[in-house]
Write a structure and sequence with these properties.
The complex is a heterodimer of chains A (353) and B (324). Chain A is built from 11 helices and 12 strands. By secondary structure, chain A is of the alpha/beta class. In chain A, strand 11 (319-320) and strand 12 form a beta hairpin. Classes of the chains: A alpha/beta (353), B alpha/beta (324).
């Protein structure tokens, strides 16, 4: 979908750079280390998918970027995030406004609870433009109708005067998208945008997102637990596990040359549709670690079929495998035994399309 | 598997929910379905298609509006009385979708799992405890988890508790209503494999309701596709998935994103406009006509019947395109 704009941004610096982000939440039971040193970058006009299971820290990561993590109990203990070179981390509600909505648009998972139920859809979109652009009510409302139309809401002019409860789930998600793109943000963050939707509606919303992304040239961070959605939308992928980046790289590298046992495990746990022969699903045994007291070694070691002695004592670094592909796994150390299913540095990376 | 005897048969099974003002929700409309012994029938469809209502109506959790349902040839009551539940709960059970809301938070796991035996068996309290402990072990938990409460368990573990609760009476027919939808991928496979083992060891017959097409194809012998209260297509699961006939099934399969970037990138987008209409005022004729890319005049007048395909009698499709 993004093939329409060939490597326009390849040479430029990344639009958004996140470096060693750490977020903790204080609770009565201790502090939860929700995000433990996450780094990634997003190039202009590209889609980065952050994928992982519940509790892996993917939503907290982007919420912290947006200043949407409640503090307290949340705390950003370290890290930097720069949008076009400008530091955006740790801004408070008010300061953050110039960035949120204007530079970054956000789409939430549950449109029913993220829109204001007492305000018409049109007014909610118009409000964004009044606040961030200083437009008049009339001008902002007219633009809201146009935006609803861009989000493929039929009879946009009438729909703009309706309230959220009069919209179906799919329509609400389109309305949310209209709010998010109102100020033509440089980055659109979509947090599980289609999880609450049925597959045919999901396909409509994903198509809409990639068309709009192409039309207004925005970059996108897509947070999802669904590897199918990642495959459909992403240029680059960050695979998160227990608050860390387990693997990171282009979508082709991460799917076809998986270098972290967790990613291999996820793929083996899903039914494959490539042939009639049903292979038995290989579940990943156990469950993710407790983030009140994360393990000293690799967070995945307890579930990893290839775990070595070092894995339970020392946390691995992210090994670089070339072309921005990294894997946080000791198996990539020089002296580690080779696991046949795993891809290593130097595995040819020119997969023919 | 089609050689096996029919276990559960629904004939023109209908469930309407009344609304104020005399209107009604046509949740399930004249569905005819046969589930054979030891077969897994997958039921897919979007929210509001009536798949959960069909499952619940089959085992008496909703009274039928009309039509019949039978179990090994014996008619099931239209409206279950307490004694009907006592009798049929030993044969037919249900595993629920949401492992968070379907377990009573004030009961211990032992009480939840053992409750069926307490109500339906002559066993003493100690025997029930022992059996509940055995079942916890069988679903991959520890017997000493018995005195804990549901909130102490993860989603996958709760679903195991739900499975133990449903299977402790050793039923023959189990309706699994989206048993894995609320779970993470790595845990989904654990639960699916567990169900598969128990199905084989206990000789279970399953109605597996889900919206994840790939998973339904994987677990099911046959797959039925529902749309707005009716079955539009049914047949061997892989055939329906890889070679869908009904235009709705085609779109459903094409909308299902697969974890394969190259395939996804080269797949033409097969979206359809519109959403599933309200089941209150169902359109005349084919229910899919309003969204169907291949709609014909006849579709808006006549309701297509679910008929076998000429070249594949084990597959049935309700679509005028295949009428002979």
């Amino acid at each position: 979908m993004t093939t329409a704009q060939p490597q326009a941004a390849a040479a430029g610096p990344p639009l958004l750079e996140v470096d060693d982000l750490r977020v903790e939440f204080d609770t009565y039971g201790g502090s939860v280390k929700a995000v433990r040193g996450v780094s990634f970058s997003v190039a202009a006009g590209k889609t980065l998918a952050i994928v992982g299971e519940s509790g892996c820290g993917k939503s907290v990561t982007v919420q912290s970027l947006m200043g949407l993590t409640p503090m307290p109990p949340g705390r950003i203990t370290s890290g930097r995030a720069r949008l076009r070179g400008v530091d955006i981390l740790g801004r408070t509600e008010i300061d953050g406004r110039e960035i949120r909505g204007r530079e970054i648009g956000m789409i939430f998972q549950d449109p029913m609870t993220s829109l204001n139920p007492t305000m018409t859809i049109g007014r909610q979109i118009a409000e964004t433009l009044e606040v961030h652009r200083g437009w008049s009510r009339k001008r902002a409302f007219d633009r809201a109708v146009e935006l609803l139309d861009m989000a493929r809401i039929p009879e946009a002019a009438q729909r703009a005067n309706q309230y959220p409860f009069e919209f179906s789930g799919g329509m609400l998600q389109r309305a949310m998208i209209a709010v998010a793109i109102a100020c033509e943000p440089a980055i659109l963050i979509a947090d599980e945008p289609t999880t609450a939707l049925d597959v045919t509606i999901q396909a409509q919303v994903l198509d809409l997102l990639s068309d709009l992304q192409r039309d207004i040239g925005t970059a996108m961070i897509l947070i999802t637990h669904d590897l199918g959605v990642v495959a459909r939308m992403a240029d680059d992928v960050v695979v998160m596990y227990a608050g860390q980046v387990a693997e990171r790289g282009s979508v082709e590298d991460v799917f076809y040359r998986s270098a972290h046992p967790y990613m291999l495990g996820l793929r083996a746990a899903m039914p494959s549709n490539s042939s009639d022969r049903a292979h038995r699903l290989l579940p990943i045994d156990g469950s993710p670690p407790d983030l009140f007291s994360p393990p000293t070694g690799c967070a995945y070691a307890a579930r990893c079929p290839h775990a070595m002695r070092i894995c339970s004592t020392n946390d691995p670094e992210a090994f670089a495998l070339g072309d921005g592909h990294t894997a946080r796994c000791w198996l990539h150390a020089d002296k580690a035994p080779r696991v046949p299913e795993l891809s290593y540095a130097g595995t040819p990376s020119g997969l023919q399309a | 598997m089609t050689a096996a005897a029919p276990l559960v048969v629904a004939d023109k099974l209908t469930k309407y929910f009344p609304l104020p003002g005399g209107r009604k929700i046509h949740a399930v409309d004249q569905v005819t379905l046969t589930v054979h012994e030891k077969e897994v029938v997958g039921l897919v469809g979007e929210s509001g298609s009536g798949k959960s209502t069909l499952g619940k109506t089959l085992i008496g959790l909703h009274p039928r509006t009309s039509g019949t349902a039978s179990y090994r040839g014996e008619a099931l009551p239209q409206h279950y009385r307490p004694e009907d539940f006592r009798r049929w709960a030993k044969k037919t059970q249900m595993i629920f979708q949401d492992p968070y809301s379907s377990l009573n938070p004030r009961m211990t796991v032992g009480e939840i799992v053992g409750e069926g035996l307490k109500l339906h068996s002559p066993y003493s309290a100690t025997e029930i405890r022992d059996r509940a402990g055995d079942w916890l072990k069988r679903v991959g938990l520890e017997p000493d988890h018995m005195s804990r409460y549901p909130h102490e368990f993860s989603g996958g573990q709760r679903q195991r508790i739900g499975i133990a609760r449903a299977l402790i009476l050793e039923p023959e027919f189990v309706v699994c209503d989206e048993p894995i939808s609320a779970l993470d991928v790595s845990v989904q496979a654990q639960v699916v494999n567990l169900l598969d083992e128990l199905k084989t060891s206990m000789g279970l017959t399953l109605l597996f309701i889900a919206h994840d097409l790939s998973m339904v194809r994987y677990v099911s012998d046959r797959m039925a596709v529902m749309y707005l209260g009716v079955i539009v297509e049914i047949g061997p699961a892989s055939n329906v998935f890889f070679n869908p006939k009904h235009p709705y099934t085609e779109i459903l399969v094409a909308s299902n994103p697969e974890p394969d970037p190259l395939r996804e990138r080269h797949r033409r987008s097969a979206t359809i406009a519109g959403e599933i209409p309200s089941p209150v005022d169902v359109p005349a004729g084919c229910r899919f006509a309003g969204r169907c890319p291949r709609v014909m005049d006849v579709c808006r007048r006549e309701t297509p019947r679910l008929l076998p395909l000429a070249d594949a009698p084990d597959r049935q499709v309700a679509c005028h395109l295949f009428a002979t």
